[in-house]
Specification:
Strand content: 15-25%
Mean pLDDT: 84
Radius of gyration: 33 Å
Distance between the termini: 90 Å
Low-confidence stretches: 1-23
Oligomer: single chain
Organism: Rhizobium mulingense
Protein name: EAL domain-containing protein
Length: 550
C-alpha cells in the first residue's frame, strides 16, 4: 500500500534548531490567539507565539483579513498576503486553514521542514492523528488507479460509532474527544500493515484494506473491529459502552471509482444500522435497488396528496351483532406501482413530516362520509404520533367537526402507545381537551408495544383495542385467552369499552362474546369497503337488525 511519509514536525526539533523558525512559522487558534500545544504535544517556548496574530502583524487591515479568513476551509487554497510586513526580509504571508488552526508562514523562506509540517497538518486530523478526509480521497483514488487492469482487490470499510451522541450530551465534549481518541487507537490495534484508518468527520471513520484475500479478509477485519468495540471504554474513570456499525464495499466488485465504493459502503452501513447496529454488513446490489425504490416512493409520496392518489376505505365495527360504525383506513394507489401498503408509506410520511397534512385530509374525508350514515354510527380515525405532537391539533379537529357538521361524540380517535411514551403535560392536556370536546379516545394495538398500565390510569381513554396478534390463535392458545380475558376485565373495571381487531372466525367471535368483549372488527364482519359500497352495506345491516328484532 502506498504510504505517505510522516512529516517531521518543528515541535520535534531541538530547542536551538527550532528557535530560528519563530520568524517563519507561527500557529494560531480560530480566534487568532497563540496556541500552547500542537497535535497534543506542547510547543517549546522558543517556537510558541508570544502574542496574538494582530499583535504580530499590526499593519494588516483587520476587517479585510477577518473577512478573508472566513472563506478558508481545509480544502481551500491558502490565503496569500503580499507586501512588506515590517519584518526585515519579509515579502508577505501564506496562511493555511488546518481544522481549527491557522498556520502562518512568512514567505521569504520555504524550508522543507516547514512544508512537511504543513503537509502533515493539512492531511491529518488534529484530534486523533489519523489521516483526514483529504488524505483518504487522495489515497483511495491512487490505489484504485494502481489496481486498474490488475487482479488486485481492495476493500473499503465505513465505521460509525453507535451511541456516541449520548456521551457528548451527558459527559461533555471533552469526554467525547477522549472517546474519539480511544476509538482511533482501538481501530489501529486491529489493523495490519496492509490496512490504513482515517477519520472523516465527527464519529465517522474509514479503513482501506489492500493485499490478497479480499473481500473475505475485509469481512474478518470488520468482525474483529465490531468485537473490539464491544469492550467498554474508560473515560474519566467512567465505563462507557460505544459500539460500531460497519459497511463494507470492495473493488472492483462493487465499483471502480471512489464515489461508487463510498456509495456502496454507505448503503451497507445504513443496512447494518437498520438491522440493529453493532454489526458489519457487506454491500449487496439489492440494497441499492431497495434504496432507489424507497427514494422513488418518497418523491411520489410528496405529490400523492396534491394529485389525489390517496383514498379511504372503511372497515365495519360490530357490537352485539349490529354494525355501530366504521374505521377509516388510509390507502395509496400509486399510478405506476399500484396499491402501496400503509406499513410502507406511513413511516415515510411520518419521517418526512407529511403526516399532519395527510392526517387532516383523512379526518375531513372520514367525517364528511360519516355525516351520511345513521346518527348512531361512529367513525374511528387513526392519529399518528407525528400528528398528535403537532401544535394546534385540538383546534384543527374541532374546526373540522364544525365545518362538516359531525357531532363530536360520533368521532373516535385511535392513538397507539408510542404517542404516550413521554407523559408530558402537553400530551395529557391534548387528550383531556379532546375528552372535554366529547370526542372519544381509543388506545390502539394494546398489548403489542409498551403496554404500561400507567397509561390507563393517567390518560382518559374510552376504548381499548386488542391487537389481532392475540386474536389469531384465540381458540386454541390458553395464553392468548388469559391475556384477552385480563384486558377485558381490566378495561371494564376502568369503565372502558373493548374492541377486538382481526376477528375472522365464528369461534373467535363466540369466545370474545363469552368474556364480555364489547365490539368486534375483522374479516368476519367485512373486509374494508370502498366508499361507494358503504350505502349498500349499511342498508343490508339495518335490514338484518330489523329482522333480528322480529
Amino acid at each position: 500500500m502506498r504510504k505517505i511519509p510522516a512529516a517531521r514536525l518543528a515541535l520535534g526539533k531541538p530547542e536551538a534548531e527550532a528557535s530560528s523558525l519563530i520568524d517563519r512559522l507561527l500557529f494560531f487558534d480560530r480566534d487568532f490567539n497563540p496556541i500552547e500545544d500542537l497535535l497534543g504535544n506542547p510547543l517549546p517556548s522558543s517556537v510558541k507565539p508570544a502574542a496574538s496574530f494582530w499583535e504580530h502583524f499590526p499593519e494588516l487591515d483587520k476587517s479585510a483579513i477577518t473577512l478573508a479568513f472566513r472563506s478558508l476551509d481545509d480544502n481551500s487554497q491558502p490565503l496569500r498576503i503580499s507586501g512588506n510586513l515590517g519584518v526585515p526580509g519579509s515579502h508577505g504571508l501564506t496562511i493555511y486553514r488546518i481544522g481549527d488552526l491557522f498556520a502562518v508562514v512568512r514567505s521569504e523562506e520555504q524550508f522543507d521542514d516547514e512544508r512537511a509540517t504543513l503537509l502533515h497538518l493539512a492531511t491529518h486530523d488534529p484530534l486523533t492523528g489519523l489521516p483526514n478526509r483529504r488524505q483518504f480521497s487522495e489515497d483511495l483514488t491512487t490505489l484504485l488507479q494502481e489496481n486498474a487492469g490488475s487482479s488486485e482487490t481492495l476493500s473499503l470499510m465505513q465505521l460509525d460509532l453507535d451511541d456516541f451522541k449520548p456521551v457528548n450530551d451527558t459527559l461533555g465534549h471533552a469526554a467525547g474527544d477522549k472517546l474519539l481518541q480511544s476509538a482511533a487507537r482501538r481501530i489501529l490495534a486491529c489493523l495490519s500493515s496492509d490496512d490504513r484508518a482515517y477519520r472523516l468527520a465527527g464519529d465517522e471513520f474509514t479503513v482501506v484494506s489492500v493485499g490478497t484475500g479480499h473481500p473475505a479478509r475485509a469481512h474478518r477485519l470488520a468482525e474483529d473491529l465490531v468485537a473490539a468495540f464491544k469492550k467498554p471504554f474508560t473515560i474519566n474513570g467512567i465505563p462507557v459502552f460505544v459500539g460500531t456499525s460497519i459497511g463494507i464495499s470492495s473493488a472492483p466488485l462493487d465499483g471502480t471509482s471512489p464515489e461508487q465504493l463510498m456509495k456502496a459502503s454507505d448503503l451497507a452501513l445504513y443496512t447494518a444500522k437498520k438491522e440493529g447496529r453493532g454489526r458489519a454488513k457487506a454491500f449487496d446490489p439489492s440494497m441499492l435497488e431497495l434504496l432507489e425504490q424507497r427514494e422513488m416512493l418518497r418523491r411520489s409520496l410528496r405529490m400523492a396528496l396534491a394529485q389525489q392518489q390517496f383514498y379511504v376505505e372503511y372497515q365495519p365495527i360490530a357490537e352485539d351483532g349490529c354494525i355501530v360504525g366504521f374505521e377509516a383506513l388510509l390507502r395509496w394507489h400509486h399510478p405506476l406501482l399500484g396499491k402501496i401498503p400503509p406499513a410502507v408509506f406511513i413511516p415515510m410520511a411520518e419521517a418526512d413530516g407529511m403526516m399532519p397534512d395527510i392526517g387532516a385530509w383523512v379526518l375531513e374525508q372520514a367525517c364528511r362520509e360519516a355525516v351520511k350514515w345513521p346518527e348512531n354510527y361512529l367513525v374511528a380515525v387513526n392519529l399518528s404520533a407525528a400528528e398528535f405532537l403537532t401544535s394546534g391539533l385540538t383546534d384543527r379537529i374541532s374546526q373540522t367537526l364544525d365545518l362538516v357538521g359531525l357531532p363530536p361524540d360520533r368521532l373516535e380517535l385511535e392513538i397507539t402507545e408510542s404517542v404516550l411514551l413521554e407523559r408530558t403535560v402537553n400530551n395529557i392536556d391534548t387528550l383531556n381537551t379532546l375528552n372535554v370536546l366529547g370526542i372519544r379516545i381509543s388506545l390502539d394495538d394494546f398489548g403489542t408495544e409498551y403496554s404500561s398500565l400507567s397509561y390507563l390510569k393517567t390518560f382518559p381513554f374510552d376504548t381499548i383495542k386488542i391487537d389481532k396478534y392475540f386474536i389469531t390463535d384465540l381458540e386454541t392458545d390458553l395464553k392468548s385467552q388469559a391475556i384477552v380475558r385480563c384486558i377485558v376485565n381490566l378495561a371494564h373495571d376502568l369503565d372502558m369499552q373493548v374492541t377486538a381487531e382481526g376477528v375472522e372466525t365464528p369461534g373467535q367471535a363466540e369466545w370474545l362474546h363469552s368474556v364480555g368483549c364489547d365490539r368486534l372488527q375483522g374479516y368476519l364482519m367485512s373486509r374494508p369497503l370502498a366508499v361507494e359500497a358503504i350505502d349498500e352495506f349499511i342498508t343490508r345491516a339495518e335490514v338484518s337488525k330489523i329482522h333480528a328484532r322480529q
